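Hello K.,

You asked for the raw outputs rather than the summary table, so here they are, unedited. I folded two proteins back to back in the same session to keep the settings identical. This is the first:
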Amino acid sequence: MRRYLPVAAIALLLTGCSTTTPQRSGSLPEQPTLTAPTSNQTGTSSQTGASGYVPLELGDTAELSAEVDGSKPATWTIEKIEIDPPCSGRNGSSDTGHVLVLHVRADSGPDKYAAEQIPDAFRYTSFAEPGKNGTAIQASPSLCKSSEPHSQPLPVPYQLNQQLTGTVALIVPEANGTLIQNNPLLKGEGWRWSYPAK
Protein backbone atom coordinates (compact mmCIF):
# COMPACT_ATOMS: atom_id res chain seq x y z
CA MET A 1 0.00 0.00 0.00
CA ARG A 2 1.40 3.44 -0.94
CA ARG A 3 1.12 6.46 1.33
CA TYR A 4 2.55 9.67 -0.10
CA LEU A 5 4.27 12.72 1.33
CA PRO A 6 5.55 15.39 -1.07
CA VAL A 7 8.13 17.86 0.25
CA ALA A 8 8.67 21.63 0.13
CA ALA A 9 10.52 23.44 -2.57
CA ILE A 10 14.26 23.72 -2.20
CA ALA A 11 13.84 27.14 -3.75
CA LEU A 12 11.53 28.10 -0.89
CA LEU A 13 14.11 27.03 1.66
CA LEU A 14 16.70 29.22 0.00
CA THR A 15 14.37 32.22 0.26
CA GLY A 16 13.40 31.68 3.90
CA CYS A 17 10.25 29.74 2.99
CA SER A 18 8.72 32.89 1.52
CA THR A 19 5.49 32.46 -0.37
CA THR A 20 6.67 35.04 -2.90
CA THR A 21 8.29 33.61 -6.03
CA PRO A 22 11.68 35.27 -6.59
CA GLN A 23 12.41 36.89 -9.93
CA ARG A 24 14.70 34.74 -12.09
CA SER A 25 17.87 36.44 -13.23
CA GLY A 26 20.05 35.95 -16.29
CA SER A 27 20.97 32.37 -17.06
CA LEU A 28 20.16 30.79 -13.69
CA PRO A 29 18.40 27.44 -14.28
CA GLU A 30 14.88 27.04 -12.98
CA GLN A 31 14.70 24.81 -9.90
CA PRO A 32 12.01 22.13 -9.54
CA THR A 33 9.18 22.67 -7.11
CA LEU A 34 8.96 20.20 -4.24
CA THR A 35 5.49 20.35 -2.77
CA ALA A 36 4.49 20.45 0.89
CA PRO A 37 2.03 17.98 2.50
CA THR A 38 -1.66 18.83 2.44
CA SER A 39 -3.64 19.08 5.65
CA ASN A 40 -5.36 15.72 5.20
CA GLN A 41 -1.96 13.98 5.06
CA THR A 42 -0.63 15.16 8.40
CA GLY A 43 -0.40 13.04 11.54
CA THR A 44 -1.72 13.95 14.97
CA SER A 45 0.39 15.98 17.37
CA SER A 46 -0.74 13.94 20.40
CA GLN A 47 1.00 10.88 19.00
CA THR A 48 4.18 12.47 17.71
CA GLY A 49 4.83 15.60 19.74
CA ALA A 50 4.66 17.62 16.50
CA SER A 51 2.20 18.05 13.64
CA GLY A 52 2.80 17.04 10.08
CA TYR A 53 3.79 13.38 10.41
CA VAL A 54 2.08 11.01 8.00
CA PRO A 55 1.26 7.68 9.70
CA LEU A 56 2.70 4.66 7.90
CA GLU A 57 2.88 0.95 8.57
CA LEU A 58 5.83 -1.26 7.69
CA GLY A 59 5.62 -2.00 3.96
CA ASP A 60 4.00 1.34 3.12
CA THR A 61 5.79 3.72 0.75
CA ALA A 62 7.02 7.22 1.55
CA GLU A 63 7.55 9.64 -1.31
CA LEU A 64 9.54 12.77 -2.08
CA SER A 65 7.74 14.30 -5.03
CA ALA A 66 9.21 16.84 -7.44
CA GLU A 67 6.76 18.38 -9.88
CA VAL A 68 9.03 18.51 -12.91
CA ASP A 69 7.29 17.46 -16.12
CA GLY A 70 5.50 14.71 -14.24
CA SER A 71 8.75 13.09 -13.11
CA LYS A 72 8.47 9.98 -11.02
CA PRO A 73 9.30 10.79 -7.36
CA ALA A 74 11.94 9.26 -5.14
CA THR A 75 10.34 6.61 -2.93
CA TRP A 76 11.27 4.25 -0.13
CA THR A 77 9.77 1.58 2.06
CA ILE A 78 10.79 0.37 5.50
CA GLU A 79 9.93 -3.29 5.03
CA LYS A 80 10.66 -4.47 8.56
CA ILE A 81 12.39 -3.43 11.77
CA GLU A 82 14.49 -5.79 13.88
CA ILE A 83 14.56 -4.98 17.61
CA ASP A 84 17.75 -5.80 19.53
CA PRO A 85 18.87 -8.37 16.94
CA PRO A 86 22.07 -10.41 17.20
CA CYS A 87 24.62 -8.00 15.75
CA SER A 88 28.10 -8.05 14.38
CA GLY A 89 30.25 -4.95 14.58
CA ARG A 90 31.00 -2.52 17.38
CA ASN A 91 28.16 -0.87 19.26
CA GLY A 92 25.90 -3.73 18.31
CA SER A 93 23.99 -3.43 21.56
CA SER A 94 23.25 -0.59 23.93
CA ASP A 95 23.00 -0.32 27.70
CA THR A 96 21.00 2.90 27.40
CA GLY A 97 18.36 1.88 24.87
CA HIS A 98 17.35 -0.55 22.16
CA VAL A 99 18.86 -1.22 18.76
CA LEU A 100 16.55 -0.96 15.77
CA VAL A 101 17.73 -2.29 12.41
CA LEU A 102 15.58 -0.93 9.58
CA HIS A 103 15.40 -2.95 6.38
CA VAL A 104 14.87 -0.43 3.60
CA ARG A 105 14.05 -0.56 -0.11
CA ALA A 106 14.45 2.70 -2.05
CA ASP A 107 14.02 3.95 -5.62
CA SER A 108 15.87 7.20 -6.26
CA GLY A 109 13.73 8.08 -9.31
CA PRO A 110 14.68 10.26 -12.28
CA ASP A 111 14.71 13.67 -10.59
CA LYS A 112 18.06 14.48 -8.99
CA TYR A 113 16.64 17.10 -6.64
CA ALA A 114 14.37 14.53 -5.01
CA ALA A 115 16.92 11.70 -5.16
CA GLU A 116 19.55 13.80 -3.40
CA GLN A 117 17.33 14.02 -0.30
CA ILE A 118 17.22 10.25 0.37
CA PRO A 119 20.62 10.06 2.12
CA ASP A 120 19.62 12.89 4.46
CA ALA A 121 16.31 11.18 5.16
CA PHE A 122 18.19 8.12 6.45
CA ARG A 123 20.79 9.83 8.62
CA TYR A 124 20.34 8.91 12.29
CA THR A 125 19.62 12.58 12.99
CA SER A 126 16.44 12.26 10.91
CA PHE A 127 14.94 9.68 13.30
CA ALA A 128 13.34 10.08 16.71
CA GLU A 129 11.08 8.24 19.12
CA PRO A 130 8.10 9.93 20.78
CA GLY A 131 8.47 9.90 24.55
CA LYS A 132 5.79 9.47 27.19
CA ASN A 133 5.48 13.22 27.68
CA GLY A 134 4.91 13.79 23.94
CA THR A 135 8.37 15.11 23.14
CA ALA A 136 10.49 13.49 20.47
CA ILE A 137 13.81 11.93 21.56
CA GLN A 138 16.39 11.81 18.79
CA ALA A 139 17.83 8.43 17.86
CA SER A 140 21.54 7.67 18.16
CA PRO A 141 23.66 5.84 15.58
CA SER A 142 24.46 2.15 15.91
CA LEU A 143 27.11 0.15 14.07
CA CYS A 144 25.02 -2.98 14.36
CA LYS A 145 25.06 -5.12 11.23
CA SER A 146 22.11 -7.42 10.74
CA SER A 147 22.94 -11.10 10.89
CA GLU A 148 20.33 -11.87 8.25
CA PRO A 149 21.76 -13.20 4.96
CA HIS A 150 22.55 -10.59 2.29
CA SER A 151 21.86 -7.69 4.67
CA GLN A 152 24.23 -4.76 4.17
CA PRO A 153 24.03 -1.10 5.24
CA LEU A 154 22.06 1.11 2.87
CA PRO A 155 24.57 2.39 0.30
CA VAL A 156 25.32 6.05 -0.44
CA PRO A 157 25.57 8.17 -2.51
CA TYR A 158 22.64 7.62 -4.84
CA GLN A 159 22.37 7.97 -8.58
CA LEU A 160 19.26 8.61 -10.63
CA ASN A 161 16.89 5.73 -11.31
CA GLN A 162 18.71 3.53 -8.84
CA GLN A 163 16.98 0.82 -6.84
CA LEU A 164 18.60 0.17 -3.49
CA THR A 165 18.16 -2.17 -0.56
CA GLY A 166 19.98 -2.09 2.75
CA THR A 167 19.77 -1.54 6.47
CA VAL A 168 19.93 1.45 8.79
CA ALA A 169 20.84 0.84 12.46
CA LEU A 170 19.65 3.14 15.26
CA ILE A 171 19.51 3.26 19.04
CA VAL A 172 16.25 4.46 20.63
CA PRO A 173 15.28 4.69 24.32
CA GLU A 174 12.25 2.39 24.47
CA ALA A 175 11.47 0.65 21.14
CA ASN A 176 7.86 1.57 21.89
CA GLY A 177 6.44 0.81 18.45
CA THR A 178 6.61 4.27 16.89
CA LEU A 179 9.52 5.74 14.93
CA ILE A 180 9.48 9.28 13.57
CA GLN A 181 11.36 9.96 10.34
CA ASN A 182 11.82 13.66 9.73
CA ASN A 183 11.45 15.20 6.32
CA PRO A 184 14.96 16.29 5.23
CA LEU A 185 13.59 19.63 4.03
CA LEU A 186 10.81 20.53 6.46
CA LYS A 187 11.24 20.79 10.23
CA GLY A 188 8.36 19.21 12.13
CA GLU A 189 7.05 17.19 9.19
CA GLY A 190 7.75 13.74 7.84
CA TRP A 191 6.60 10.18 8.51
CA ARG A 192 5.54 8.22 11.57
CA TRP A 193 6.26 4.50 11.20
CA SER A 194 4.46 1.95 13.38
CA TYR A 195 6.07 -1.40 14.18
CA PRO A 196 5.56 -4.19 16.76
CA ALA A 197 6.85 -2.86 20.09
CA LYS A 198 9.54 -4.55 22.18
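The second followed immediately with the same parameters:
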Amino acid sequence: MNSPNVLPALPFDVQDSVFRTNAWCDAWLATYGKLSQVKTIDLGGAGNSLEMVYLASAMFKKVIPIQEMALVGCGGFIVNSPRSEYNQLNALVAKLGDKEKIIQSLDGLAWNRLHLTDFSHIEHSLLAQFFAASNYHAQHQEDIAYQVSAVSMAEYMDLLGKNTRGRYFNKRNKLETSFSTEWRRLNVDTDLAEFFGLLNGFHLKRWSQPCYSDLSQAFIGQFLQEIQRAGGCVHLSVLQLNDAPQSVLLDVEWRNRRYNLQAGFDESIAGNCKLGSIHLGKAIEEAVLAGVVYDFMAGEGLKSNYKSSIATHRFDLSSVTITRGWMGRLKNWKSN
Protein backbone atom coordinates (compact mmCIF):
# COMPACT_ATOMS: atom_id res chain seq x y z
CA MET A 1 0.00 0.00 0.00
CA ASN A 2 1.16 3.54 -0.70
CA SER A 3 2.51 5.80 2.03
CA PRO A 4 0.13 8.63 3.05
CA ASN A 5 2.24 11.14 1.15
CA VAL A 6 1.67 9.46 -2.21
CA LEU A 7 -1.88 8.16 -1.84
CA PRO A 8 -3.94 9.65 -4.69
CA ALA A 9 -6.51 12.29 -3.85
CA LEU A 10 -10.14 11.20 -4.09
CA PRO A 11 -12.41 13.85 -5.65
CA PHE A 12 -15.18 14.76 -3.23
CA ASP A 13 -17.76 17.54 -3.37
CA VAL A 14 -17.77 18.73 0.24
CA GLN A 15 -21.32 19.93 -0.34
CA ASP A 16 -22.24 16.28 0.27
CA SER A 17 -20.52 16.14 3.68
CA VAL A 18 -22.65 14.51 6.36
CA PHE A 19 -21.26 17.08 8.79
CA ARG A 20 -22.85 19.98 6.91
CA THR A 21 -26.37 18.66 7.09
CA ASN A 22 -29.27 19.97 9.13
CA ALA A 23 -29.27 16.63 10.94
CA TRP A 24 -25.77 17.30 12.33
CA CYS A 25 -26.18 21.04 12.94
CA ASP A 26 -29.69 20.84 14.41
CA ALA A 27 -28.50 18.18 16.85
CA TRP A 28 -25.55 20.43 17.78
CA LEU A 29 -27.91 23.37 18.38
CA ALA A 30 -30.17 21.25 20.60
CA THR A 31 -27.24 20.20 22.80
CA TYR A 32 -24.08 22.30 22.65
CA GLY A 33 -26.07 25.33 21.51
CA LYS A 34 -27.84 25.30 24.89
CA LEU A 35 -24.64 25.80 26.89
CA SER A 36 -24.64 29.01 28.91
CA GLN A 37 -21.38 30.25 27.35
CA VAL A 38 -22.69 29.82 23.79
CA LYS A 39 -24.55 32.49 21.82
CA THR A 40 -25.78 31.52 18.36
CA ILE A 41 -25.99 34.06 15.53
CA ASP A 42 -28.27 33.45 12.55
CA LEU A 43 -26.44 35.06 9.63
CA GLY A 44 -29.03 33.84 7.13
CA GLY A 45 -31.99 35.03 9.19
CA ALA A 46 -34.18 32.05 8.32
CA GLY A 47 -33.58 29.76 11.29
CA ASN A 48 -31.46 27.37 9.20
CA SER A 49 -28.70 25.87 11.37
CA LEU A 50 -26.40 25.59 8.32
CA GLU A 51 -26.40 29.40 8.11
CA MET A 52 -25.48 29.96 11.75
CA VAL A 53 -22.29 30.68 13.67
CA TYR A 54 -21.80 30.94 17.40
CA LEU A 55 -19.76 32.88 19.91
CA ALA A 56 -18.40 31.02 22.93
CA SER A 57 -17.08 32.95 25.90
CA ALA A 58 -14.32 32.10 28.38
CA MET A 59 -11.72 33.88 30.51
CA PHE A 60 -8.00 34.05 29.75
CA LYS A 61 -5.95 33.80 32.96
CA LYS A 62 -9.30 34.19 34.76
CA VAL A 63 -9.21 37.91 33.95
CA ILE A 64 -9.41 38.74 30.23
CA PRO A 65 -12.54 37.69 28.29
CA ILE A 66 -12.21 35.56 25.15
CA GLN A 67 -14.89 35.46 22.48
CA GLU A 68 -14.37 32.54 20.12
CA MET A 69 -16.41 32.12 16.94
CA ALA A 70 -17.03 29.01 14.85
CA LEU A 71 -19.66 27.48 12.60
CA VAL A 72 -22.61 25.84 14.33
CA GLY A 73 -21.83 22.12 14.26
CA CYS A 74 -18.08 22.63 14.71
CA GLY A 75 -16.15 22.51 17.94
CA GLY A 76 -13.38 24.81 19.08
CA PHE A 77 -11.06 25.44 21.99
CA ILE A 78 -13.96 26.41 24.29
CA VAL A 79 -16.73 24.13 23.01
CA ASN A 80 -15.25 20.65 22.74
CA SER A 81 -17.88 18.91 20.62
CA PRO A 82 -17.22 15.86 18.41
CA ARG A 83 -15.10 16.64 15.38
CA SER A 84 -16.78 17.55 12.10
CA GLU A 85 -14.87 17.32 8.82
CA TYR A 86 -15.27 18.37 5.18
CA ASN A 87 -16.72 21.69 6.29
CA GLN A 88 -17.83 24.34 3.82
CA LEU A 89 -19.83 27.57 3.53
CA ASN A 90 -22.19 26.54 0.70
CA ALA A 91 -25.41 27.24 2.63
CA LEU A 92 -24.22 30.73 3.52
CA VAL A 93 -23.02 31.37 -0.03
CA ALA A 94 -26.46 30.42 -1.35
CA LYS A 95 -28.07 32.81 1.15
CA LEU A 96 -25.69 35.78 1.13
CA GLY A 97 -24.39 35.61 -2.44
CA ASP A 98 -20.64 35.02 -2.23
CA LYS A 99 -17.83 34.23 0.16
CA GLU A 100 -16.66 37.84 0.38
CA LYS A 101 -20.01 38.88 1.86
CA ILE A 102 -19.83 35.99 4.32
CA ILE A 103 -16.35 37.02 5.41
CA GLN A 104 -17.47 40.61 5.81
CA SER A 105 -20.34 39.39 8.00
CA LEU A 106 -17.95 37.33 10.12
CA ASP A 107 -15.48 40.21 10.33
CA GLY A 108 -18.17 42.48 11.76
CA LEU A 109 -18.95 40.26 14.76
CA ALA A 110 -17.41 40.65 18.22
CA TRP A 111 -14.80 37.88 18.31
CA ASN A 112 -11.11 37.82 19.08
CA ARG A 113 -10.55 34.21 17.99
CA LEU A 114 -12.13 32.61 14.91
CA HIS A 115 -11.82 28.85 14.55
CA LEU A 116 -12.44 27.40 11.05
CA THR A 117 -11.72 23.69 11.05
CA ASP A 118 -11.30 20.91 8.50
CA PHE A 119 -12.09 22.74 5.27
CA SER A 120 -10.89 21.70 1.85
CA HIS A 121 -7.65 23.38 0.75
CA ILE A 122 -9.51 25.54 -1.78
CA GLU A 123 -12.08 26.79 0.72
CA HIS A 124 -9.39 27.33 3.34
CA SER A 125 -7.15 29.36 1.02
CA LEU A 126 -9.96 31.80 0.19
CA LEU A 127 -10.67 32.40 3.86
CA ALA A 128 -7.01 32.68 4.80
CA GLN A 129 -6.25 35.17 2.00
CA PHE A 130 -8.95 37.55 3.15
CA PHE A 131 -7.99 37.52 6.79
CA ALA A 132 -4.29 37.80 5.94
CA ALA A 133 -5.13 41.05 4.15
CA SER A 134 -6.69 42.27 7.38
CA ASN A 135 -3.36 41.79 9.21
CA TYR A 136 -4.86 39.35 11.68
CA HIS A 137 -2.72 36.58 13.09
CA ALA A 138 -3.46 33.21 11.45
CA GLN A 139 -2.29 29.80 12.61
CA HIS A 140 -2.69 26.98 10.09
CA GLN A 141 -2.94 23.24 10.55
CA GLU A 142 -3.01 20.49 7.93
CA ASP A 143 -4.50 17.01 8.22
CA ILE A 144 -5.32 14.03 6.02
CA ALA A 145 -8.58 12.12 5.80
CA TYR A 146 -8.32 8.54 4.51
CA GLN A 147 -10.74 6.59 2.33
CA VAL A 148 -11.21 3.28 0.55
CA SER A 149 -12.65 3.49 -2.95
CA ALA A 150 -12.44 0.28 -4.97
CA VAL A 151 -14.36 -1.34 -7.80
CA SER A 152 -14.23 -4.78 -6.17
CA MET A 153 -12.83 -6.57 -3.14
CA ALA A 154 -10.43 -8.45 -5.41
CA GLU A 155 -9.01 -5.16 -6.69
CA TYR A 156 -8.77 -3.77 -3.16
CA MET A 157 -7.14 -6.87 -1.66
CA ASP A 158 -4.49 -6.81 -4.40
CA LEU A 159 -3.40 -3.38 -3.10
CA LEU A 160 -2.81 -4.61 0.45
CA GLY A 161 0.26 -6.25 1.88
CA LYS A 162 0.10 -9.83 3.15
CA ASN A 163 0.11 -8.87 6.84
CA THR A 164 -2.57 -6.23 6.32
CA ARG A 165 -4.83 -8.66 4.47
CA GLY A 166 -4.42 -11.15 7.29
CA ARG A 167 -5.09 -8.69 10.10
CA TYR A 168 -8.22 -7.09 8.64
CA PHE A 169 -9.73 -9.83 6.49
CA ASN A 170 -8.26 -13.33 6.45
CA LYS A 171 -8.29 -13.86 10.21
CA ARG A 172 -12.06 -13.44 10.25
CA ASN A 173 -12.33 -17.10 9.20
CA LYS A 174 -10.12 -18.18 12.10
CA LEU A 175 -12.22 -16.10 14.50
CA GLU A 176 -15.47 -17.59 13.23
CA THR A 177 -14.17 -21.15 13.61
CA SER A 178 -12.78 -20.51 17.11
CA PHE A 179 -15.92 -18.89 18.55
CA SER A 180 -19.65 -18.96 18.11
CA THR A 181 -19.77 -15.68 16.19
CA GLU A 182 -22.73 -13.37 15.55
CA TRP A 183 -22.74 -10.03 13.74
CA ARG A 184 -25.65 -7.98 15.11
CA ARG A 185 -27.03 -4.69 13.86
CA LEU A 186 -28.86 -2.69 16.49
CA ASN A 187 -31.82 -0.39 15.86
CA VAL A 188 -31.35 3.39 16.13
CA ASP A 189 -34.85 3.93 17.48
CA THR A 190 -34.76 1.27 20.21
CA ASP A 191 -31.15 0.25 20.92
CA LEU A 192 -29.11 3.45 21.24
CA ALA A 193 -28.78 3.17 25.01
CA GLU A 194 -27.51 -0.41 24.70
CA PHE A 195 -25.02 0.55 21.99
CA PHE A 196 -23.65 3.58 23.84
CA GLY A 197 -23.35 1.48 26.99
CA LEU A 198 -21.19 -1.06 25.16
CA LEU A 199 -19.10 1.58 23.39
CA ASN A 200 -18.44 3.57 26.57
CA GLY A 201 -17.67 0.37 28.47
CA PHE A 202 -14.99 -0.70 26.01
CA HIS A 203 -13.44 2.78 26.08
CA LEU A 204 -13.48 2.86 29.88
CA LYS A 205 -11.63 -0.44 30.00
CA ARG A 206 -9.03 0.63 27.44
CA TRP A 207 -8.65 4.39 28.00
CA SER A 208 -10.05 4.84 31.54
CA GLN A 209 -12.70 7.23 30.24
CA PRO A 210 -15.91 6.83 28.22
CA CYS A 211 -16.06 7.50 24.51
CA TYR A 212 -18.88 10.01 24.87
CA SER A 213 -19.82 12.33 27.72
CA ASP A 214 -23.50 12.72 28.57
CA LEU A 215 -23.64 15.84 26.38
CA SER A 216 -21.81 14.39 23.38
CA GLN A 217 -23.87 11.21 23.64
CA ALA A 218 -27.09 13.25 23.55
CA PHE A 219 -25.74 15.11 20.51
CA ILE A 220 -24.65 12.01 18.58
CA GLY A 221 -27.84 10.16 19.50
CA GLN A 222 -30.05 12.94 18.15
CA PHE A 223 -27.87 13.24 15.03
CA LEU A 224 -28.19 9.51 14.29
CA GLN A 225 -31.96 9.65 14.55
CA GLU A 226 -32.16 12.80 12.41
CA ILE A 227 -29.82 11.55 9.68
CA GLN A 228 -31.80 8.30 9.44
CA ARG A 229 -35.03 10.27 9.03
CA ALA A 230 -33.30 12.31 6.30
CA GLY A 231 -32.56 9.13 4.33
CA GLY A 232 -29.16 8.17 5.71
CA CYS A 233 -28.24 4.73 6.98
CA VAL A 234 -26.89 4.18 10.50
CA HIS A 235 -24.77 1.11 11.23
CA LEU A 236 -24.78 0.18 14.93
CA SER A 237 -22.71 -2.98 14.53
CA VAL A 238 -21.99 -5.43 17.34
CA LEU A 239 -19.69 -8.46 17.13
CA GLN A 240 -20.63 -11.17 19.63
CA LEU A 241 -18.40 -14.10 20.52
CA ASN A 242 -20.03 -16.98 22.43
CA ASP A 243 -23.11 -14.74 22.95
CA ALA A 244 -21.09 -11.91 24.58
CA PRO A 245 -20.57 -8.50 22.87
CA GLN A 246 -16.83 -8.00 22.31
CA SER A 247 -16.63 -5.28 19.63
CA VAL A 248 -18.83 -2.41 18.42
CA LEU A 249 -18.60 -0.10 15.43
CA LEU A 250 -20.56 3.07 14.60
CA ASP A 251 -20.81 4.10 10.94
CA VAL A 252 -23.11 6.51 9.11
CA GLU A 253 -23.82 6.17 5.39
CA TRP A 254 -24.80 9.33 3.52
CA ARG A 255 -24.73 10.11 -0.20
CA ASN A 256 -22.59 7.18 -1.32
CA ARG A 257 -20.08 7.54 1.51
CA ARG A 258 -19.87 5.50 4.71
CA TYR A 259 -18.21 7.36 7.58
CA ASN A 260 -16.51 5.49 10.42
CA LEU A 261 -17.39 7.57 13.49
CA GLN A 262 -16.38 5.35 16.42
CA ALA A 263 -15.38 1.87 17.49
CA GLY A 264 -14.68 -0.01 20.69
CA PHE A 265 -13.59 -3.55 21.53
CA ASP A 266 -12.07 -5.83 24.15
CA GLU A 267 -8.32 -6.18 23.47
CA SER A 268 -7.97 -9.22 25.75
CA ILE A 269 -10.19 -11.50 23.67
CA ALA A 270 -9.26 -13.76 20.73
CA GLY A 271 -5.47 -13.69 20.94
CA ASN A 272 -3.85 -12.59 17.69
CA CYS A 273 -7.23 -12.06 16.04
CA LYS A 274 -7.52 -8.31 16.56
CA LEU A 275 -11.23 -7.71 16.98
CA GLY A 276 -11.16 -4.01 16.12
CA SER A 277 -9.29 -4.68 12.89
CA ILE A 278 -11.52 -7.59 11.90
CA HIS A 279 -14.66 -5.55 12.62
CA LEU A 280 -13.33 -2.64 10.57
CA GLY A 281 -12.40 -5.00 7.74
CA LYS A 282 -15.95 -6.33 7.61
CA ALA A 283 -17.33 -2.78 7.41
CA ILE A 284 -14.91 -1.92 4.58
CA GLU A 285 -15.98 -5.05 2.70
CA GLU A 286 -19.66 -4.15 3.10
CA ALA A 287 -18.97 -0.67 1.71
CA VAL A 288 -16.97 -1.92 -1.28
CA LEU A 289 -19.64 -4.52 -2.13
CA ALA A 290 -22.32 -1.80 -1.85
CA GLY A 291 -20.37 0.48 -4.19
CA VAL A 292 -19.82 3.28 -1.66
CA VAL A 293 -16.67 4.98 -0.39
CA TYR A 294 -15.51 3.95 3.08
CA ASP A 295 -14.25 6.99 4.95
CA PHE A 296 -11.96 6.65 7.98
CA MET A 297 -11.74 10.46 8.16
CA ALA A 298 -8.74 12.19 9.73
CA GLY A 299 -6.65 11.21 12.72
CA GLU A 300 -4.12 8.52 13.51
CA GLY A 301 -4.15 5.50 15.77
CA LEU A 302 -2.57 5.39 19.21
CA LYS A 303 0.46 3.32 18.13
CA SER A 304 0.57 3.82 14.36
CA ASN A 305 -1.15 5.50 11.44
CA TYR A 306 -3.09 2.35 10.60
CA LYS A 307 -5.44 4.20 8.25
CA SER A 308 -2.69 4.89 5.73
CA SER A 309 -1.95 1.16 5.44
CA ILE A 310 -5.50 0.23 4.44
CA ALA A 311 -6.61 3.36 2.55
CA THR A 312 -6.61 3.70 -1.22
CA HIS A 313 -7.09 7.50 -1.30
CA ARG A 314 -6.63 10.67 0.74
CA PHE A 315 -8.32 14.05 1.09
CA ASP A 316 -6.33 17.00 2.41
CA LEU A 317 -7.95 19.12 5.10
CA SER A 318 -6.93 22.53 6.39
CA SER A 319 -7.84 24.42 9.55
CA VAL A 320 -7.07 28.00 10.52
CA THR A 321 -7.33 29.83 13.82
CA ILE A 322 -7.47 33.59 13.36
CA THR A 323 -6.89 35.99 16.24
CA ARG A 324 -7.25 39.75 16.42
CA GLY A 325 -7.35 42.51 19.01
CA TRP A 326 -5.33 41.84 22.16
CA MET A 327 -5.11 38.14 21.30
CA GLY A 328 -3.79 38.83 17.81
CA ARG A 329 -1.21 41.24 19.16
CA LEU A 330 -0.12 38.63 21.70
CA LYS A 331 0.22 35.97 18.99
CA ASN A 332 2.20 38.31 16.74
CA TRP A 333 4.46 39.26 19.63
CA LYS A 334 5.15 35.59 20.45
CA SER A 335 5.90 34.75 16.81
CA ASN A 336 8.49 37.55 16.45
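The longest strand covers residues 137-148.

Happy to rerun anything if the numbers look odd on your end.

Regards,
P.
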